[in-house]
Amino acid sequence: MGDTILKILVPHDGSAISDKALKQAIVFGKKLNYEIILLHIIDLKLLYSDSILKYIDEKSALETAKTQLLKYLKMGSESMLKDRIEETKKEGVKVRFTLGIGATPEGIVNVAKSEKVDFIILGSRGLSSESNEPDKLRILGSVARHVSELADCPVMIVK
After folding, report:
1. β-strand pairing of 34-42 with 119-123
2. Which of 13, 29, 69, 128 could form a disulfide with 93 if both were Cys (CB 3.0 to 4.6 A apart)?
3. What is the pTM assigned to this prediction?
4. pLDDT in tens, 5-16
């Protein structure tokens, strides 16, 4: 393997299933000397919603507000994952945080490509579906399914 650093991408939305995916990545990281890249995606469709934009006349103020909101979202994401990053480091696994912006599946795949990751480990269902009781046909969430279809590298989906 030489000096090549192998990388596992773990998208994390704060859900319990994302924590399970991170724990699985830590197992691989310890055994195979992988670096974990912990990713949080901010979906910009919330900021560009027509229902919000139609009420704002001053576009320069809107851009300033969007910039500020992104700054707060990034700080919130890092804060949310801080304990998980520290726990991973305590396990002796190299880890770093990165933020992706855009639609969640495409954002995950784009970061995987730009970081040249070897492997993606993600939860089967995200935070938006965590409170819903999964039925037999909806065990795999749409984000996990799309990532598994779009990614160029292997994808492990944790239940």
Report:
1. unpaired
2. 29
3. 0.82
4. 899 999 999 999
Distance CA 62, CA 86 (A): 36
* Residue 76: strand pairing partners: none
- The token duo for 48 is 């560009």
pLDDT at 1 over 50: no
Locus of tokens 């969007």? 66
Burial class of residue 99 (count of CB atoms within 10 Å of its CB; 0-12, 13-18, 19+): middle
pLDDT tens-digit profile of 89-132? Answer: 999 999 999 998 888 899 999 999 999 999 999 999 755 444 44
Residues, the chain? 159
Gyration radius (Cα) of the chain, Å: 17
Are 112 and 8 a contacting pair, CB within 8 Å?
no
Domain ranges of the chain: 6-119
Sheet holding 119-123, edge to edge: 95-101, 34-42, 6-11, 119-123, 155-158
